[in-house]
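ok trying again, last paste got cut off:
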Amino acid sequence: MAEPGIPQAAELPQPAAVANPLLAAFLAWLVPGAGHLMLRRAARAGLFFVVVLVSLAIGCSLHGNLYTPVAGQPLTYLATLGCMGLGLPYFILRYLVGYHGDVVSAGFEYGTAFVLTAGLMNLLLVLDAWDIASGKKD
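nice, full thing came through this time. structure:
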C-alpha cells in the first residue's frame, strides 16, 4: 500500500540522456578523455588524457609488459583485455611501434603495473562517460 506524499517508482522522473551513451563510451575508450570532450567536459577530458597517458609513459619508460594472450595461461587474456582498455594507444604501441617491454629490466614489474593500471583506469573513464551521457551523473 502506498503512503501518501511519497512518490512511487513509476512516478519518479527518469534521467534524460544528454548525448548518445554508446558514442561517448566508444570515444572515451578510443582516446582517453575524448568521450568527456564530446560531452563538453573539457577540463575533465584534459585531466583524464594526461593521467592515463602519463601512467602509460611511466610504464613504458620502466619497460613494463604490454600484455598479449599466451596460450595455456588464461590470466594473460584478462590482462590483455585490461591493457586494451587503453584503446588506440594500445594498438599503436603493439602494432605500429612493436613495443613489448623488457623482462630483464629492473623496473619491469613496476612498469607492467603502470601499463595495466592505465588501461584499467581508462575503462573506468569509459563507464563515467557512459553515465554522464545517459544522464545518470552530472
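cool. The mean pLDDT is 92. The chain is about 60% helix and 0% strand.
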